[in-house]
Structure formats: structure tokens, C-alpha cells
Hints:
The chain is an alpha+beta fold. Helix content is 31%, strand content 19%.
Amino acid sequence: MNLQIDIAPGxxxxxxxxxxxxxxxxxxxxxxxxxACSRSSLAQTPANRKAVDYACDSxxxxxxxxxxxxxxxxxxxxxxxxxxTAIRSDSVPNLFVLNYDALWRVRNLLLVPSFFFAESCVxxxxxxxPNARRAxxxxxxxxxxxxxxxxxxxxxxxxxxxxPSEVRRQYETIRPLSQVAASARGWTLDVxxxxxxxxxxxxxxxxxxxFEAELxxxxxxxxxxxxxxxxxxxxxxxxxLLEFVAPGKYRSDDLRSAYAHxxxxxxxxxxxxxxxxxxxxxxxxxxxxxRGRVLLAF
Length: 298
């Protein structure tokens, strides 16, 4: 995988967002592979296909790319209603989140599998003002910190490429969750994310029950939260993500602190450090790519 992004495709554009999108999508077409099968490349989809930028010609998996100069926990996405509908219909594409530095080198590349999106991680943005061209339109943000670490697979981390075999191994580990019905999967993912807050590999049923109030807020239409928690522990056990140790006791090798096992976002202090090093200056963001004069950052 070549981490250097070619900026030549952006020469024809004036808008910084168009330049970034064109250059990073071209980089993805040259470097992405399918994590769901052995295909070594992904095909770029037509520009008019909403929310899908790439597709696998072997297994038909689809992918969306979001690129940004700063690494953070929030990714701006499309219409809130459309995203919620996609989650409920199990038609969300896999998501690549790419972070590049001031020299147009890929610093981080994160993959969120399509079956790891719960409604709880999609937050509505304020409606556009009455004076806006699309007045009243409500977009959304994907809050990555509301997605369990198992669903955030590093393809590139801190400029270090993770081997495709390791990415595919991690993908296979969590693939059983794709078989959980979309209507029920939100509960499973929310319980899994809550369990990570315990911070230990082994936990008790009572410790899982401690998230009853939090989960009740996420699922206000369910009045039997404790039975639902028990049910989801069984689902996670059947999926191979939890092990039953003894009555009322569970274990998972992945239930450590998110930072310790390296699949979640870095702590806030480190995020700030990464953003500082990889974020172009305000002045550089005003620059453009022009004919015969290529500038490196936006």
C-alpha cells in the first residue's frame, strides 16, 4: 500500500472539498482491497451513486470513503433520515475513514464494517437555516466513540500499514454479527459497546446490569432492559465474542480498555497531538490546486 496521495487528479478543481474528494478517492481506487474476501482491489463506482464509492467485484460488498485532515471521533455524513433508513434496512455501506497529513500522506485509515452501525451512533445535526438553499434539511454525524472497538478496524495506523491478512482476520472474527437481524442488531452493538466501559476481560452479570439506565435511554420503547441485556450476552456468546465462564460470569479477550488493544480511537490528549501534527494550517487550507502550480494542503 502506497501511503502517498497523488494530487494530480485535483488540478482541475477549485473547491478544496472537491480536490480532497477527488484525490483521496483516486488513492482508494489504487490501494483499497476487500476485507470481506480475498479480492486485492475495489472498483470505483460511478460518481452519481449515492453513499457508495467502491464495490467489490467478487463478493459485492460496497464501501464509502470519508476523508479529513484531522483525526476525530465524529464523521459528517448525509441526511439523518436516509442513514437511519439504511441501518434499518441493512443497506449501510462499509465505511473507510481516512486521515491525511499536510504532505498528503495517509496517516490513518479506519474501516467500520457495514453491520456495525447502530442508530445510537448516528446523531442528527441542527436543521439548515431558513435562508439556506436546502432550508430545514437535517444532516447527521457518525460518532465513532459510540461504536465498539471490535467494529473499528485499523488498515493504517499512525502511518503504519496493517497487513491485509490481519485486517481480514479481525473482520472474520466479527462477521457473525452480520447474521443478527438488522432490527435486533442495535441492541447487540449497544450492549457490546457498554461492556467495554467495564475495562476488564472478565465481568459479571451484575456489572452488565449496571448499564441498564444507559441502555434504557438508547431504547426507550423497551421496558424489560435486564432480560434484554441477558439476551444480548447470549447473542454475543453465540457469535464467539463472549465466553461463558461460570453462572453469572463472562469473559472476552477483547474486553480490555479500548486504547490497550489498539482498535479504538486514541485518548483525547493523543487525538489532539495527532491533529496538531497532521492538520494543515488555516492559511494552507485557503490554498488551491491550480494549473502548473500544485500546493499540498487545504
